Amino acid sequence: MLKLLVVDDELVILHGIVKILREGNTPFTQIESAMDASEALSLLSHFTPDLIITDINMPEINGFEFINIVKEQKLCDRFIILTGYDEFAYAKKAIRIQVIDYVLKPIDKMEILSLLRNVAKEIFEEKKLGEKQDQKEHESEYSFHVEKILGYIQQNYQKDLSLEQFSELIDLHPNYISFLFKKEMGLSLIQYLQDYRIEKAKELLMKHQTLPVQIIGNQVGYENPQHFMKVFKKIVGCTPGSYRENNHER
Q1: Residue 146 CB: number of other CB atoms within 10 A?
Q2: Most Cβ neighbours (<10 Å): which of 42, 126, 133, 228?
Q3: How far apart (Å, rounded) are the C-alpha atoms in residues 19 and 107?
């Protein structure tokens, strides 16, 4: 739900506005109030509203000055101003500092409630767009990390690779790397590395017909010939020698 701060130096009006808003069944369920700008600024040190409704004519710091301070400190960026003066100069200044709306006193109950519901709708839409943007940024970040891993494998598949090496490469925990890679690629990092090495081995078997199988295994990252042949048969369905013979005949 949304948070709202109401600022007005006239106590009766302040209590009246807060009462209307609390009984008005709007999405603004957390409502705080302040008698002047100084009290409001103190409140904003621990309360972060989605919207501020403020009077213009207040002692020491007027409403326009208060809005500028709040904006400079990035405490809130949505404002509705209240005033008893229906003057063009006020409206023009309100437009210049980009407030949401300009409401005249005495407050019309239905008008203020309708305005707040419309503002709440806009806030929810902005937050939804922000969440989608955050999700896209996270997805882009995931792709960046995975692409970096894929590039590293392509350049170093002949070497002895481990999750710890990938962890140092992209500065993420090994367990998180495993989760991230499987989420993006649909298979584990170890399985992908095995598949990639075996594909390279198949290319070498066909390209170098007389090259011993154990050397080919070594060139794609398997120091142990027996382990290479075991992995090859598991993935391809036959031994490296049989694969070479069968495909050479074709």
Answers
A1: 19
A2: 228
A3: 12
- Whole-angstrom distance, CA of residue 249 vs CA of residue 91: 87
Q: How confident is the model at residue 139 (pLDDT cuts 50, 70, 90)?
A: low
Of the options 1.10.10.60, 1.10.1900.20, 3.30.2350.10, 2.40.30.10, the CATH number for the domain spanning 191-249: 1.10.10.60
Per-residue pLDDT of 233-245, as tens digits, reads: 999 999 999 998 8
- Is pTM, for the whole model, over 0.85? no
Q: pLDDT (tens digit, 9 = 90+) per residue, 53-90?
A: 999 888 899 988 999 999 999 999 999 988 876 655 66
Which H or E run contains 51? strand 51-55
Q: Which residue has the tokens 């600024």?
A: 41
Q: Distance between CA atoms of 106 and 238, rounded to whole angstroms?
A: 87
